[in-house]
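Sharing a chain and its predicted structure for anyone who wants a worked example. Both blocks are below, sequence first, tokens second.
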Amino acid sequence: MLDDTMTALADPTRRAILARLATGEARVSELAEPFPISLNSVSKHIRMLERAGLVKRRVQGREHILALDPRPLDEAARWIEDHRKLWAWRLAELEKALMEDRKDG
């Protein structure tokens, strides 16, 4: 699931769609409006976001209404934070080792 989330976030159009959905639900046609691409292309982006679990769709009559589901973002944020802490610790250890080498040298 994390791979799907990261893949979905890698594209600026998909990030823009998520930013719009962060302000509230929207119809597919509303989401497509600001983009200089076809409705079909926007639909492909939306399907990728759905596959990642970032977007939920409900059908109301003929309208497809989309909403943001931030849970996969929370998972990605936890993964990033865990790795940030690990690398911060590793870099601090490297810095200590380099300082020791300087003192000894």
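Comments welcome. Residues 2-104 form a domain with the Arc Repressor Mutant, subunit A fold (CATH 1.10.10.10).
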